[in-house]
Design a protein that fits this description.
This protein is mainly alpha-helical and 102 residues long. The chain contains four helices and two strands, in the order ααββαα. Helix content is 52%, strand content 9%. A hairpin with a 2-residue loop joins strand 1 (67-69) and strand 2. The protein is elongated.
Length: 102
C-alpha cells in the first residue's frame, strides 16, 4: 500500500498521524504483554514467580484478623481500615475492644 503524503491536506495528515500513533501504542502494548507472558513462563519453568526473580515483594499482604464478631464468628476485622458496622455497634453497646479480640 502506497500513500501519497504530498497530496494529502493537513487535516488528512493529522488524522493519519493519530491512526499511526494509536497503532504503534497498541503494537507496543501487545509486545510488552507477550514479553511479560514469556518471562513469567520461563520463571515458572524454573520454579519461581517473576516477582521472586525480580526481587519484588508481593503487594498483596494479608493481615491477620485481630477482632471477631461474637454474634457471627465468620466476621472478622484486622484492626486496620474502616471499622466494620458490627464492630461499631458492639463498641456503642458498651463492649470494649478487648472483648472482641480473637
Amino acid at each position: 500500500m502506497t500513500i501519497d503524503l504530498d497530496s494529502m491536506s493537513r487535516n488528512e495528515l493529522m488524522a493519519l498521524k493519530k491512526k499511526v500513533d494509536k497503532a504503534l501504542a497498541s503494537f507496543e502494548k501487545r509486545q510488552r504483554e507477550a514479553a511479560l507472558a514469556a518471562a513469567q513462563k520461563a520463571a515458572q519453568e524454573h520454579g519461581f514467580s517473576l516477582d521472586e526473580i525480580m526481587g519484588r515483594k508481593s503487594a498483596a499482604k494479608t493481615s491477620v484478623p485481630k477482632y471477631r464478631n461474637p454474634e457471627n464468628p465468620t466476621q472478622t476485622w484486622t484492626g486496620r481500615g474502616r471499622q466494620p458496622a458490627w464492630y461499631k455497634q458492639a463498641i456503642e453497646s458498651g463492649k470494649q475492644p478487648a472483648d472482641l479480640e480473637i
